[in-house]
Each structure stands twice: as C-alpha cells, then as structure tokens.
Design goal:
Elements: E1 2-5, E2 11-12, E3 27-31, H1 48-55, H2 63-78, E4 89-93
Length: 98
C-alpha cells in the first residue's frame, strides 16, 4: 500500500497502481497491511484514517522521521495487544534539484 506526500504537505491516500510523476521534495510512503490492521487491546483496527492523521503533519519531514513516527504511533496504539501481522514501512523523498 502506498501513500504520497507532496512537498506542499498534501497526503494522497491509497495511490492506485499506475505511473505517477513526482516532483523534487515529494515523499512516497509505502507500508504493509499490518500497519493499518494493527489492533489495540479492544481489537479495534489502527485504520487508514489514523495513518492519514499521522502522515499529514509529516509531509515535509525527512523519510526516516516519517517512518519512525508512524511505527511509534502504531506501537503506542497497539499497546499490549499481540501483533498479528508484520508492521513494515518505508519512505523515500525525491531530492530537490536547483
């Protein structure tokens, strides 16, 4: 699953398979289903909406920070609930060229 974060701090949820043109400064966030399907002790899913809320203020952040904040958020949400799936994410940002 993929989310796109433009350099203008816009989150584009659920990018469909296809060809996209990224501009300098744009960030691409990719993750496995275990991120949004992580459950808390009450068995409520982390959800796409919660992920978008976490990503929105991180649109201009370095990729490492984006991944760290998302994983921290998922881990805090899940608390003591057992992990049922892998929680993996990756972010890349295109360099800004003069």
């Amino acid at each position: 699953m993929t989310r796109g974060c433009s350099s203008q701090r816009t989150v584009h949820p659920n990018l469909a398979p296809g060809t996209y043109t990224l501009a300098g400064g744009d960030c691409l966030f990719m993750y496995r289903g275990g991120v949004t399907e992580a459950m808390n002790p009450d068995q409520a899913l982390y959800s796409d909406g919660r992920l978008e809320e976490v990503l929105a203020p991180l649109a201009g952040a370095p990729p490492k920070t984006v991944v760290e904040r998302v994983i921290e958020s998922v881990t805090a949400y899940a608390a003591s609930a057992p992990q049922a799936d892998d929680i993996a994410a990756m972010a890349v940002r295109l360099p800004v060229t003069p």
